[in-house]
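FORM 7B: Structural annotation worksheet

SECTION A. Query
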Amino acid sequence: MVLRVDCTAGYRGEETPRRFFLGERAVEVAEVLDQWLAPDHRYFKVKGSDGAAYILRHDGGAGRWELVMYDRTGSAI
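SECTION B. Predicted structure
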């Protein structure tokens, strides 16, 4: 699922998600739980303002964000 994501730039200019949209519904990023790099993507495990946990994938070359995983229980994924 392709997402629209609002970001903040870190001290190195790296984008970190602060809000994303599921359709028309905005989900604020309450906490970045983890982040890691893959050869072509950056991943962020975040806790949303709705209490759910999400894994977001950023393709920097294409400038595209995708929802990879969703857990509405908010437990560890």
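SECTION C. Observations
The chain has a mean pLDDT of 89. The chain has no helices and six strands.

SECTION D. Sign-off
Analyst initials: ____
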